[in-house]
Design brief:
Main location: membrane
Organism: Arthrobacter globiformis (strain ATCC 8010 / DSM 20124 / JCM 1332 / NBRC 12137 / NCIMB 8907 / NRRL B-2979 / 168)
Number of strands: 0
InterPro entries: MFS (IPR011701), MFS_trans_sf (IPR036259), MFS_Transporter (IPR051788)
Strand content: under 5%
Membrane topology: Multi-pass membrane protein
Oligomer: single chain
Shape: globular
Subcellular location: Membrane
Distance between the termini: 35 Å
């Protein structure tokens, strides 16, 4: 086998390993979310107490994503992902044990907090690893990586629905999910390469140049220091990233699209039920429609980005999200509201993937800048929907979504910051 073919095989293994990391993250998320009704019933919780449980998870996630840049720079993306998935696995087991054995809301809250701590740093490191393999391949794959996360959530939700219907105890379900997540990701991590010392290259790897003798050595980019380096230097890199104008503007651009995605997850079903007078089942189906089209957008995004580039695509995505949201809020008939969800889902699909790719344009500063954009984006994703709930108390659920539309207009105006660095 020629050296070029070996390099191509290594890059393919690398890409597949990163796909596993994204899909497993989605599986973990959907596993505990799908059992929330069982957790609520098993512990006899009120809606307010369930909210406090979710707040523990949100607090863990935000704390972790805020420190994720330092963590990745200190440990490297491979070790961060491995430690993160192990934390998530342990957190799922603890949440299940707290539900089925201890009947303790405190234990469940602690488990979800551990899940949040592990997930956020894991996701930031996955974005660093994904951006590195994207550079190595020479074409856009970040949308499909995030699409793998979406597929993982679909699989996790389906398995959760089956487990609930079959009467599987929460402990056994979450313990099995935790073992699968931790085992698959720790195994896949052996093929991660973003922490390896970079090699010079003369041409990017592409599937159509396996036998091209001009292709240089396997291009890999050092994302972290793999456990070495000075903590002060790492803190300086993070501080510089927070002062970098382009990075902050990328974060604000992602903020609008992340808020559009998060708001749909928390409020679409209720908005359909209360605002458009649909049944609870129809409301859930509406969110399923949104997720389906968002997944389609992510898998189609690779082709679209390669053909048109980041800036035009982000303009169209932001515009579609604005139009879809407006149609959803003001739809005179339910069928139009469902059609609007498809447009909204397509529009929101590429915000995170493109933002992560753009933040990682400079390999030497990728970890710090990705962590900044992730913190802003995840902050909007996690904290925005609860704030919409407060606004909905005064103007109603449907009209509260107009606040998201206003932020999306800002994302549209900031689309040029996604332009690839020379």
């Amino acid at each position: 086998m020629s050296s070029t073919a070996v390099q191509a095989r290594e890059v393919t293994l690398w890409r597949n390993a990163v796909v596993v990391a994204y899909a497993a993250s989605g599986l973990a998320f959907a596993s505990w979310v799908s059992r929330l009704p069982a957790i609520r019933d098993g512990l006899n919780l009120t809606p307010g107490t369930v909210g406090l449980l979710l707040l523990c998870m949100t607090a863990g996630s935000f704390l972790s994503v805020s420190a994720s840049g330092l963590i990745v720079l200190r440990l490297g993306s491979r070790r961060t992902i491995r430690s993160g998935c192990l934390m998530v696995g342990c957190g799922l087991v603890l949440a299940g044990f707290g539900t089925s054995v201890l009947s303790s809301p405190v234990a469940v809250a602690a488990g979800l907090a551990v899940v949040g701590l592990g997930t956020a740093s894991w996701n930031t490191a996955s974005n660093v690893e994904g951006a590195a393999v994207e550079r190595a391949m020479g074409w856009h794959i970040m949308p499909r990586l995030h699409g793998s996360f979406s597929l993982g959530t679909v699989a996790g939700a389906g398995l959760g629905a089956w487990a609930a219907g079959a009467g599987v105890p929460v402990l056994w379900h979450l313990a099995a999910a935790g073992l699968v997540v931790a085992g698959s990701v720790t195994t896949a991590a052996r093929w991660f390469r973003a922490d390896v010392t970079p090699a010079e290259r003369t041409a990017p790897y592409r599937p159509d140049n396996f036998e091209d003798p001009s292709t240089g050595p396997l291009p890999v980019i050092r994302a972290g220091n793999g456990g070495g380096g000075a903590p002060l230097d790492n803190k300086r890199k993070i501080a510089q990233a927070w002062r970098d104008r382009r990075t902050l503007l990328l974060g604000v651009m992602v903020l609008g699209l992340a808020l559009a995605e998060g708001a749909a997850g928390d409020w679409v079903a209720l908005a359909l039920a209360d605002g458009h007078h649909q049944s609870d089942a129809a409301g859930a189906a509406g969110y399923g429609l949104f997720v389906t089209f968002m997944t389609i957008g992510r898998f189609a995004g690779t082709v679209v980005l390669d053909r048109f580039g980041r800036v035009p695509v982000m303009r169209w995505c932001s515009a579609m999200a604005v139009v879809g949201l407006a149609l959803f809020v003001f739809a005179p008939a339910p069928w139009l509201a469902y059609a609007a969800l498809a447009v909204w889902g397509l529009g929101a699909s590429l915000g995170f993937p493109v933002g992560m790719s753009a933040a990682a344009d400079d390999p030497a500063k990728a970890a710090a800048r990705v962590s900044v954009v992730s913190t802003i984006g995840y902050g909007a994703f996690l904290c925005g929907p609860p704030l919409l709930g407060l606004l909905a108390e005064h103007v109603g659920i449907l009209h509260s979504l107009l606040a998201v539309m206003a932020v999306l207009v800002v994302s549209f105006l900031l689309s040029p910051v996604a332009r690839k660095l020379p």
